[in-house]
Structure formats: C-alpha cells, structure tokens
Write a structure and sequence with these properties.
Blueprint: E1 3-5, H1 13-27, E2 34-38, H2 46-55, E3 58-61, H3 67-74, E4 79-82, H4 90-106, E5 110-116, H5 130-143, E6 146-152, H6 156-160, H7 162-169, E7 173-176, E8 182-183, H8 188-199, E9 207-211, E10 217-218, H9 219-230, E11 235-238, H10 241-250, H11 270-281, H12 291-296, H13 303-306, H14 312-315
Helix pairs in contact: 1-8, 3-4, 4-5, 10-11
C-alpha cells in the first residue's frame, strides 16, 4: 500500500506527513511507501528534503491548478490525503475537483479530505469558507471513490499565534467579532493526527467526522490566558462586523483572496476572519463531538496545554505569519 500526502509544505499537511513517518517507524514499515507532494518542492527547507530522501520517501510537485501534473504526482499511490486549498471561492472548488479527478485517473482508491465544520448544514452557509467545502463534499460523494471527510473546527493555534500577534501589533488590543461565544477549537497537531490515522485506514469509508476539541472556551478566556502567562495586559475588544472589517483594512488584510497580500501580516482575508469569528458569537463553533477520541483514543489538547509552546510570539516579537512555526 502506498500513501500520498498533499500540501506537505503547509502547517497541516506537514504535520500529517510527520505523523505518518513516525507511524511507519514504530510499525517497521518502509518509508518507500510514501509519496509527498506540494506545488513547489524546492521551497521545502533542504534539511527536511534531505531527511525525507534518506528515508526513501518520494517527493513530487503537485499544483492543484495543473491536472496533468496531479495525475503524475498521484500515480502509484492507493490512498490520498487531500488538504484543502488556500484560495476561497470558485477557484478553490475547481482546484478540489482537479485533485479528485486526478486521483481517480491515477488509480487512487481512497481520499481523506479536510473539510470544515458544518459543511452540509445550511445553518453554516453564510460562513465565508463553508460553501467551498459543501460543493467539494458533494462532488466527492458523486465521484464514486471511497473517502473519509474530516470536518475540522477552527484551529486553536491560530488564536494563540496570529490573534496574539495582531493584538501586540495593535496596542495590546484583541479585536474580534466572536463576542462572548465559545468554541471547541481543535489543535492542528490533533487534526493532523486524525488525518494521518484516517489516511492509514482507521476510519469508516464514506463517513464524515467532526474534529473538535475537548473544551468549550471563549476568545475572552484565551485573551486572559495569554495575558496571564505572558504578563502582558491584553485588552479583549469585541466589535461588530463593520468595525472589525475597518480594523483589518487598517492593518492591510485584504477582504478576499484575490487581492494583494504583500503587506498583510496574516495569510487569510477579511471575509474569512470576520465570518469565522462571528460564527463563534452565533454558537456555531461550540460543537461537541466524540469523533476525535473515537479515532485516536486520546483526549484533545487544550489551550493550557498549548499556550506556553507559542510563547515565542510575544518573546520574539513576531510580526508576520511566515515566522510562526
């Protein structure tokens, strides 16, 4: 059995890749059964590429906008981990369809897809990123290929890294449309563990899993936790949608993914950030699920487990998402 992982240059795909490497080591399975892909392999740090090469892992270019290249990249694999694209809207849906079509053409038997909480629930349709995942899930079901879908909640790390970074860049003020709402945020490390296990065959075919954390916590709580640990008095500032848009505009965060991100401190657009965080205020992200424990046999990480790991954000004065580990 050969396994293909897309997006290994990213923070989720890279974590999935390392989880699978570790699993193979503990099980005594040859790493020659792994095919890692990303759009530009040469941009992966040389030390990492060399390590993968020494393990016998194949690294291939796979651009979601290049259907022919995708077929070549996936050829020889049987199970595929498909991380969702970074664009939002019609372009991303087209990319996802390219991946699914190429996987089928290349002889892939099974796809594990990273979706978003509420993808098939009309109550979430107004959240900016949701329709892309809804359409992708429908296309995946109709394709005839076997699959698992992992519907991730919002990532905990984003609020312990970029939210903190933006607060420090904004006079120690934490702006958000989340209000007093709570969410069961999932850590990327936990999401990646689920992704690796589903890729390796842990889940049931043609089933979607809600990947949520074990605690329901508000952004006010997160703000207070960071303030306590860092010793920096960060003020929690809940605002309305228009005020949040104006704030994001003021720090050069574009409103959609088709705009210029050269001055943006984060890789996400304003429409994404405003609606995601507003959905917390609406109670849409406070979803409790046993799926993480069912798949992993572990309890999900909490904010207290993670906050010290990201203390370098305030200790080093990080000001750009590319410097976030």
């Amino acid at each position: 059995m050969k396994y293909v992982i897309t997006g290994v240059d990213g923070k989720l795909g890279g974590r999935v890749a390392e989880n699978v490497i570790t699993h193979f080591m503990t099980q005594g399975i040859t790493h020659a059964n792994l095919i890692f892909t990303c759009p530009l392999p040469e941009r992966i740090p040389a030390k990492i590429r060399e390590r993968w090469s020494q393990l016998g892992i194949t690294l291939r270019a796979a651009d979601y906008d290049n259907p022919e290249q995708l077929v070549v990249a996936f050829t020889g694999g049987q199970r595929l981990f498909m991380v969702s694209g970074v664009l939002i809207g019609e372009k991303r849906v087209r990319q996802h369809k390219n991946v699914i079509n190429a996987a089928i053409k290349a002889g892939i038997d099974h796809i594990t897809y990273t979706s978003f909480l509420g993808a098939t629930d009309p109550a979430y349709a107004h959240v900016y990123v949701t329709p892309d995942h809804t359409e992708t899930e429908i296309y995946l079901r109709k394709s005839g290929i076997n699959y698992n879908v992992m519907r991730n909640n919002l990532y905990m790390e984003n609020y312990l890294t970029t939210s903190v970074m933006l607060s420090l860049l904004s006079g120690n003020k934490w702006y958000t449309t989340a209000g007093e709402g709570k969410a069961t945020y999932i850590a990327k490390d936990d999401s990646a563990l689920v992704g690796a296990l589903l890729l390796l065959g842990k889940g049931e075919d043609k089933r979607a899993y809600n990947i949520t954390g074990s605690e329901s916590i508000s952004q006010r709580d997160l703000c207070q936790l960071v303030s306590h640990v860092s010793g920096i008095p960060i003020e929690y500032c809940p605002v309305g949608k228009e005020e949040f848009f104006e704030y994001l505009d003021s720090i050069h965060i574009p409103r959609d993914t088709d705009q210029d991100f050269s001055l943006s401190p984060v890789p996400w657009c304003g429409n994404d950030m405003v609606t995601n965080e507003a959905s917390i205020a609406e109670g849409l992200m406070d979803v409790k699920s046993d799926d993480f424990f069912t798949i992993t046999g572990q309890h999900a990480l909490t904010a207290k487990n993670l906050v010290v790991k990201y203390s370098y954000i305030w200790e080093k004065g990080i000001t750009h998402w590319k410097d976030i580990l």
